[in-house]
Amino acid sequence: xxxxxxxxxxxxxxxxxxxxxxxxxxxxxxxxxxxxxxxxxxxxxxxxxxxxxxxxxxxxxxxxxxxxxxxxxxxxxxxxxxxxxxxxxxxxxxxxxxxxxxxxxxxxxxxxxxxxxxxxxxxxxxxxxxxxxxxxxxxxxxxxxxxxxxxxxxxxxxxxxxxxxxxxxxxxxxxxxxxxxxxxxxxxxxxxxxxxxxxxxxxxxxxxxxxxxxxxxxxxxxxxxxxxxxxxxxxxxxxxxxxxxxxxxxxxxxxxxxxxxxxxxxxxxxxxxxxxxxxxxxxxxxxxxxxxxxxxxxxxxxxxxxxxxxxxxxxxxxxxxxxxxxxxxxxxxxxxxxxxxxxxxxxxxxxxxxxxxxxxxxxxxxxxxxxxxxxxxxxxxxxxxxxxxxxxxxxxxxxxxxxxxxxxxxxxxxxxxxxxxxxxxxxxxxxxxxxxxxxxxxxxxxxxxxxxxxxxxxxxxxxxxxxxxxxxxxxxxxxxxxxxxxxxxxxxxxxxxxxxxxxxxxxxxxxxxxxxxxxxxxxxxxxxxxxxxxxxxxxxxxxxxxxxxxxxxxxxxxxxxxxxxxxxxxxxxxxxxxxxxxxxxxxxxxxxxxxxxxxxxxxxxxxxx
Length: 609
What we know:
This protein has helices at 3-15, 26-41, 62-68, 72-76, 89-97, 146-175, 198-204, 224-238, 282-300, 325-331, 335-338, 353-364, 410-432, 451-457, 469-472, 480-491, 527-568, 575-607; strands spanning 47-51, 57-60, 105-114, 120-132, 135-144, 179-185, 191-196, 242-250, 253-265, 271-280, 304-309, 320-323, 369-376, 382-393, 399-408, 436-441, 446-449, 495-501, 506-514, 518-525. The chain is an alpha+beta fold.
């Protein structure tokens, strides 16, 4: 055996717990070989030898055959890659190719191996470089640590579970909404706080550091303190948990709590601790008071209240489970007569079936809806009812009920019908009058435009209704008409004026009447009247001109006539002189007659122009 092989065997022997002194004799070598075979073959751990250059297995021990399930013949036809997962082959090659010193032991680490039945095991691999059959080889020892790792993993998992459990308990303890506290029972019978959770501080406003180690007398005020002590003692004596309700003032305000304490006993049956919890029911009590108030409101309201099941829904509609007193007064039906029935008991021939169909569609889609229809009382009397129905959901968002609020609107409906009749009559009047008419609200939006307005202003109502008058006539803010409208709005005074509309080039006589809702505007076309008046005025002006001009022509002749008449009165005139005066008088009269005829002709010309 070579020196290297002998050295390796010395290492193996040493690892086995014995030492064989190296000699040079043949007897000694055979002794070493025998010891090597015994150590190799009888090792309690699987071992094999493989050639470093080819990775071919050259020898295996009995434990390897037993543990892996391969026969020795099968092993000797394998390489070390054949019992490994394919994913580890490349990594193993890199490690073995990197071996430099082959004359020492190696700790390769933990690898996955495959048994013959394809079971995967985790193996801790150690190796020793040796010379075997004059070949450079590696003898490896396999330590199956699968069960060990499983056990370690279980231990770690259990430790983690314990840690998680502790953390969860801590989280629960400090994040639960209820107050949790632990109280110790001192030798003198007094009670001292050992622990409180975060909820205690959140609800009471008292810090944990101000509570731990303090007697309850310093924390719980009267009268809650006396009540708490009596309940603690009751729990201890009865050896059972005790629950009660108490109202206690704290820095955060007065709280109402449902308190439970459980006594904890030691092995000697002595109560050593009390574990307690407080469920804050302050808001619950407030809600209960609000519910009682709401119930009182529902019971005493003048509006009818109906509560119905959400399902099942059929053609008859939801079934009634509650009605208030107002329902009985309004319909004449008692609660007993309608419970379990559908609201359709109130409907009849004059009910609006289109509105009811809309209501049913809303109910099928879980939508709120409001309708106004005719219903029937138990007596058969009709009445108008306004119904508003809303789905009610539980805390999980599932709809469980319908609530309907109903109001008798008969008087209102009759008033509306009367008003509509008045509107209809008014509209008929406005449509029949010869004046144009339109109305607008306080925002200048036109809400009425009669037929005459369409004709006069050449604007169909479809283009006007619902629009701002200033948008319809953009030039109006710059005109006097706009100022009259503004004055009517501001001073609430009637405005009367005449105006020319550039849009249609017509003159209008306008009357504007203000009201609480806006302006009512009446207007009539006065264009023809104004043109006629203007023509008369122009004719009169011409007549005045003619009269003025002709008066200047006639006055000299009239003066001449008057002078000649005065001459004739002179008695001293001779006949010859009188004849001459008469000739002058005749001449003057003829001239005056000619002027008068001219005046008549001029007047006739003016008349027919």
